[in-house]
Structure formats: C-alpha cells, structure tokens
Amino acid sequence: MRKLLIWLPLGLFLGFFALFASGLLKPDDRVITSKLVGKTLPAFSLPAAASDRPGLVSTELATGKPRLLNIFASWCLPCAAEAPQLLALAQEGVEIDAIAIRDARPDVDRFLARYGNPYSRIGLDARSGVQIALGSSGVPESFVIDGKGRIVYQHVGDIRADDVPMILQRLKDAR
Amino acid sequence: MIAEAGLIALWLAFALALLQLTLVGFGLAGGKQELLGSVRPIAVAQGGLIVIAFALLIALFLRSDMSVLLVVNNSHSMKPWLYKFAGTWGNHEGSMLLWVTVMGVAGAAVALFERALRRDTHMATLGGQAAISLGFYAFLLFASNPFARIDPPAADGQGLNPLLQDPGLAFHPPTLYLGYVGLSVAFSFAIGALLTRRVDAAFARAMRPWVLGAWILLTLGITAGSYWAYYELGWGGWWFWDPVENASLMPWLAATALLHSVTVLATRDALRAWTVMLAVIAFSMSMVGTFLVRSGILTSVHAFAVDPERGTFILVLLGFYIGGALALFGWRVGAVREGAPFELVSRETMLVVNNLLLTVILGLVLIGTLYPLMTEAFGHKVSVGAPYFDRIAGPIALILMLVMAAGPLTRWRRDRLSVVARRLLVPAVIAIFAVALLAWVAWGRIGVLPFFGLVVALAVGAGSIAPLWKRNLRRTPLFTYGMVIAHLGCAVSLAGMACDSAFTVEKLAAVRVGDSVQAGDWTLQFNRISPIAGDNWTALQADLEAVRGGGAPVMLHPQSRFFASAATTTTEAALLTRWNGQLYVVLGQEAEDGRWQLRIWWKPFVTLIWLGGILIALGGALALIGRERRGWQLKWRERAAA
Amino acid sequence: MRILVALIAILFSVSAPVMGQSALPPAPYANRQISDPVLERKAKALMETIRCLTCQSQSIADSDASMAGDMRSQIRERIMVGEEPEHIRAWLIERYGDWVSYEPTANPILWPLWAAPFLLIGLGLLLLRGRIRRKRK
C-alpha cells in the first residue's frame, strides 16, 4: 500500500505529461464549429444590405438546388481576400447568397464595387442576430445548404483557392 | 558588442553550471571530497555572470539597439524609458532570461548564506540547482536566444503590446518570477535531502527561510498582478480563473501548504515524506505553469507570446526534472523513516488538515484548468471557468479559513477539544452575530458564497488576532506577530472579495456632455470630452466630476487610448479610492446618437482584497525576520559562551 | 476643439476596419442595463457564464468585442420579453456546443469534474489514516 502511494505521484505526472504532449501534437484549432450542421436552417428574414441586391429570407435557401451561404462583412480583411474564390465559384454556376454582419449599405456597396459581387441576395444582419442563430462565430464563414434548407457543411475562415474544388464537391454531394 | 558580451556571459554561466554539477557529482558519488571546495565559489560566479547577461539585455533595451532582433520585435525608440526598461521582460526571451537570472541568483544565495544545512546535503542542493539551471540555460541558448542580431538593423522597433505599457510591468513580472523561480531552491533542497537521505527537523529549519522568502514574493507578485488586471482590463474584475492566473495560483497553493508542513517538520519532526513531496510539487507547478502559459495549448486573456516548438522544449525539461524528482522520491523515500505520529486534537492535526485542503484546492484548480484539454482528446470542446471554480474551491477555501483560525489556538502534541472550543468562543459569537445581522440586512439580495464569505471573514478576522489575547505583547516573538498578521490578511482579503461580489453597484450609461449619472451614492457629471496626447499614444479623455453626499467634487479622467505603433486601443479606467470602496469609471465608445458610453462601478471595500495580500506578505516578512533574528541571537550566545 | 475631437474620432473609426472590428455602434442593449433590476441581475448572471466567441478565454460580460456586445444585447432583449436564462443558455449550446457555457452543463463528459473534490478528499483521508494516534486511555 505504502509502495503504491510512493509511486502514485510519478504515475499521475506521467498521465499529465502524456496529456501535455498530446496537446502539443494536436494543437487546439480554436475553431468553434456550428452544431447546426446536419440540421435545418433557422428561420430568418433580413433586409437588403446592398443597393442592387434583394434581402434574404431563410425560405429562399430551400428551393430544391444546393446553395452557398456566405457570412461576410465589408470591414473584414480576410473577406476581401476571399472574394476572388467566391467569384470563381459563381463562374462555375454556384448560387451564392450572403449575410453581411454589422454592416451599413454604403460600406457594402463600396466593398462589392471594389472586390466584385458574386451574390444573388444579401441580407443585412446589423446586430449579428442571425449569425448567432446560425452558430457562426466569426467572419468570413460559409455554409453549404442543400435544396431542402438543411445545413450540410460549414467552412470556417476564408475560402482559399485550393478549397474551391472541395466546396464544389460538397455542393454536388448536397444534391 | 553588448549583445555579444551578453551571449558570452550566458555561455559562461552555462559552462559553470555544468562544472558545478560535475563537481558535485564526482565529489559526492565518487567520494572525492576535495572537489567540493570549489562548488560554492562557482555557484556565486555563475550567479554573477547571469546577472551581467541580464543587465546587458536591459542596456540593449534602454539604448534601443535596433540591430538586436528582440529589441526590434518588442520595443520602440519613442517609448518612455520605463517601458524600454520593463519591456526587457515583456516578451518571451527576456522573461526566460529573467527566469534563469532569478535561478542563478537564488543558487548563489544558497551558496553564500546557507549555514544550517549539513555539508553533503548543501552540496547536493547546489548540484540540484545547477542541474535545473542547466536545462533552462540550454533552452535560452538553443531555442530562445535573446541576443540574436539582425542584419541590416531595423529603422525602428515594432513596439510593445499597449496592454503591457503600464507601471505594473515594472513590478509584477519580476516579483512573481522571484517567487515562482525562488521555489526552485526548495526543489533543490528536496533533491539534496533525498540524495543524502537527510530529511529531519534540522533540514526543515534550514529550508524554511527559503520557502518563506519565495512565498512572500509570490504573494506580492500575484497581488500586484490581480490589481493590474483589475484596472487595465476595464471591466472591474480582479480574478478570472484564467489559465495564466491559475498557473500562478497553483505554485502559491503548494508553497502555502509547504510553508505549514515545513513548520510541522521543524517543530515536531513529523510529515517528512510529505514535506519533501510538497517541495517538489511547488516548483513543479511553477514549471507546469510556464509550460501552459508559453506553449499555447490553453487560451488566455493575458498577453503572452506562444510558440508550440518552444513548448516542446519546455515539456522535455518538465519531463526530465519533474519526472526525475518524482522517481528519486519513489526510490529514496522508503529510506526516510516515518516521522512522529500525533494526537487527533493537536496543532499538528490542524496543520495536516490545512495541507490536505490546500492540496485538494490545488488539485481541483489543476484538473479544472486542464479539463478542456482532456475532453479535447475525446473530440469534445468544453469550457471550465469561474462558475465551476467558485462553486468547488469556494466552500473548501471557507472551511480552510476556519481551520486557519482554530490552528494557532490549538497546542502542539495534544490539546483538549473543550479548551480549544473555549478559546474560539469570541470568534464564534462574532460569527453568529454576523449571520444574524447579514440575514436581517441583506437576505436574498446576496449570493450564498458571498454571504458565508463575509461571515467567515469576520469570525476568522477575530480568530486570527486571538493568539495575542492575554499575552505579554512585548515578549511575544516577532514570528508570532507575523503569523497573526498573515492570517488576518487572509480574512481581510476574503472580506474584500465577499464585499465586491455582494455589494458592487454597476451602472452602464450613455451620456451627452452636460448630463449627469447616478451610481450608488455617487453623482457623476459629464463635463467634456477632449483629445490628449501622450509619449506614444493619443487618447480621448472624459472629464467627469464625481460627488457623494454633500462632499467636495472630485475630477475623474477615464481615457480611451490609441497606440499608433501597434494599431490598438486600450481603455484606461479612472479609479477613485475612498476608505470604504472604489469608484471605477471606464469611457466606452461613442453611440450613434453622439452619446458616450460610460461604465461605472461603485465597489465597496474592494481594495481590501489587495490590502489583505500585502498584509499576508508583510506577515511572512515578519516571520522570516523573526526566525532569522532568533537564529543569529542563538549563534552569538553560543559564540559568547565559547 | 470640436474639430480635434472629430479628427481623433475619425482616426479611431478608420483604425477599426484595420483591426477587423465593425465600425457600427454597439447594439442597443450591449452596454445598457434593463431598467428592472431583477431582470438585469438575471441577465448579468447569464452573461457572466457565456463564453465570448471571438476573444480569448473571456465571458461576454467582460469583453469589448462587437460580437460579445451583440450577444449581451440579444440576451437582455430576450430576458426582457420574459425568456428564462436557462432557456437562452440551452439555445446557445444547441448552436455552439457545451464550449459556449462556462457553467458546466449536464453532459456526462463533465461528471468527473464534480466527482473530483470527493475523490481528492477521499484520497487525502486515506493518506492520513494511521498517521493520527488514537487517543490515549
């Protein structure tokens, strides 16, 4: 018994050591994913964020064809970096809708004029309410929505050039 | 040239540490006694060299030498000199150099001033200190060289994180590190005692001042850090149960337990193995804390540069030192005889319960801090924060406080329960009175934990002074005063915490120039908002006039500061301290209608939290002086008799 | 004087997009209390236990991040229309998982956390057993 107790501290330490090592080997990605993936999109209705695009209602995302829902903001740098990839996706025939977070119409107009406009509809989420309802934790993020209004995939962070084929595949699989 | 000289000093210190360890090894294990003669001078020289290296790094920062990478990355020539100076340790490499400097200085101090320890244990201790230093020197030299140059030199530096540009940076990290790393001495003592199989009362008496010294500085460092976070983060919180805070709390808990168990060992020759274990745990917690903070495996609000590769290096050191010490413990502690047993009602039991509860809290803080990492391994993200720690550690801490009040009123060896109860009568009456009063005044308005916190603070406050009751105050030894003051400090601090969470008044307001706001008893008049410029920042400053009752108005100037060199905005809270609390005002953003956001808190007696911390450290200092002075007096007397 | 204020205000707002923070003013109840103190206390208690998504290891009650402000505002507004705090917490956990709540949830993966104090105290008593001498007759 005493023997066991004497070696217990070392045993406990080895356990912690293994834990630390695993923490270093697999660093925390710090990404908080939405738990709504696989579930139906929450209902919302947003006013137009840009002068030449309509606003966005959740039912418009369930029209039988998979769509990409992009969460962005004009004040967000990675969103500008992501713009060419979204344009490329639009060229491929992907229908992209967007929600602009904490934004104002003139700013969105300026952003689209500068970086291109791949969106069909853009809803304005001035108080991040819909973003929170979606379980999204930052900008930019993109959701692949299947034809029935179900979220099938969430992409956290900007879509890089090498992510584009994967996104296309996800959209195809969602059919 | 300065950078090269610094690097050379670092290498020389590394070489001397290696030599020190080798000499101790051959001297003790190989039986070559003559080798041991040079160990002490080498330890002193090693300490001197590392101090020189650190001084040279400070010189590089003060001169804004932009050919040194570390200065370029963390400093700026426009910075006020205080932040150039303190900025030396406001980064990873500099703070690690501070770490080894403290370690080297502690080793030199043990070589110079330790007289009570047996010679072989003393030498083994210096060997242990050299062994730990060696790893951290290697870490600096091979993975975090603070003296690296860049060519060509940069035009100017990138500046220091604005959150760190505060006088707190000059005081908090050095004090905390002195305590954190000072515990390495206790660790080396434990290694020395295990190697030479000498764990007894004399060993404990030799170790006690070193533990006490480190603990005092650790207490001051944590207190200062808490106050700094309180006024800098701008939300009125003083403890967030954040991983970095827990990393500093865990060594403190272990050191506090050690401080008490070492007294049991010194006085009654009991708790031998346990005291050695705690000495190992205390510094192990310092190393674990450093690993958690710097490896980036946990997220924290506090500013720290993280780097997984360096994390790996620290993890290897951690495994080597902690694993080695615990293996040595398992191997050798069987040879340590069990100390004297003791009666159920005795001061020994009280101190053992103190140790048990402190260690349980330590274990819970460790588990709680690491729990998200454990669940992450199973692919599940969770958060463990204040609600858990408050609810779990809070009640245990309150019980601990009660034991703390009862302990000094109980005799060593054996006491009678009825007698102890009689000594506790006055505090108990105060507690009952406090329960009744609080129940009458604030029932249902304040939480359960703050409620009992206030009750316990009052009772323990009275109980902690009780050891002085009916004693000749002039003949009471200084270390008894020290204990009384430290215990009183715990009660004072607890009272501050309980008052803050029970009675704080919060007022969030949006005001125009000319408006006034009511927060608790205070009326604040928003007079104007104006821009001002500092050395390396510009700010918007609000001028507020605060009035309470019919008193004279006091001006308050909260700011929103913008630092161009880091493109960051910080809030500078305005604090107004009164004897019964603090008014805390933060200037927020401008709202769309042109009104300004103000966050105002009236925090009754919140300052007691840090006052308590200072009292705890002061008590420790008195105990240290008292014990040491008595030692000198005895020695003089012996000399006079001889 | 006013111009200087405006200039600095511009400086601040220009710097905002660089930092990736929205220039929009905070949501109505982000920094405004509910007038009913009972409801405000309820909301505040909940906010202190909800983790901020865009910052490091902070609750939304002590964060300057705009998303934390939006969450505070949303929580206050929902409490005002009579929603229970635990319902809002469950709603957030449904979206962000247990991570979002500092208050440990009923998830079995968290049970060991509650068992820990009892285990540790039990272990301590086990260590103590036999160390304390029985009272002499």
Automatic annotation (TrEMBL), chain A:
Residues 35-175 form the Thioredoxin domain. The keyword Disulfide bond applies. The keyword Disulfide bond applies. One of its GO terms (cellular component) is cell envelope. One of its GO terms (biological process) is cytochrome complex assembly. InterPro entries: Redoxin (IPR013740), Thioredoxin-like_sf (IPR036249), Thioredoxin_CS (IPR017937), Thioredoxin_domain (IPR013766), Thioredoxin_ResA/DsbE_sf (IPR050553). It holds the Pfam family Redoxin. It is found in: Cell envelope. Keywords: Cytochrome c-type biogenesis, Disulfide bond, Redox-active center. One of its GO terms (molecular function) is disulfide oxidoreductase activity. This is Cytochrome c biogenesis protein CcmG/thiol:disulfide interchange protein DsbE. It comes from Sphingobium vermicomposti.
Automatic annotation (TrEMBL), chain B:
One of its GO terms (biological process) is cytochrome complex assembly. Residues 315-627 form the Cytochrome c-type biogenesis protein CcmF C-terminal domain. Coiled coil: none annotated. It is found in: Cell inner membrane. It is a multi-pass membrane protein. GO terms for molecular function: heme binding; heme transmembrane transporter activity. The chain crosses the membrane at residues 6-30, 42-62, 96-113, 125-143, 177-197, 209-229, 249-266, 273-293, 313-331, 352-372, 392-412, 424-443, 449-469, 478-498, 605-625. Residues 89-295 form the Cytochrome c assembly protein domain. Keywords: Cell inner membrane, Cell membrane, Cytochrome c-type biogenesis, Membrane, Transmembrane, Transmembrane helix. It comes from the Bacteria. One of its GO terms (cellular component) is plasma membrane. Belongs to the CcmF/CycK/Ccl1/NrfE/CcsA family. Required for the biogenesis of c-type cytochromes. Possible subunit of a heme lyase. This is Cytochrome c-type biogenesis protein CcmF.
From TrEMBL, chain C:
It comes from Sphingobium vermicomposti. One of its GO terms (biological process) is cytochrome complex assembly. Gene3D superfamilies: Cytochrome C biogenesis protein. InterPro entries: C-type_cytochrome_biogenesis, CcmH/CycL/Ccl2/NrfF_N, CcmH/CycL/NrfF/Ccl2_sf. The lineage of its organism: Bacteria, Pseudomonadati, Pseudomonadota, Alphaproteobacteria, Sphingomonadales. Residues 27-136 form the CcmH/CycL/Ccl2/NrfF N-terminal domain. Residues 1-20 form the signal peptide. Keywords: Cytochrome c-type biogenesis, Heme, Iron, Membrane, Metal-binding, Signal, Transmembrane, Transmembrane helix. This is Cytochrome c-type biogenesis protein.
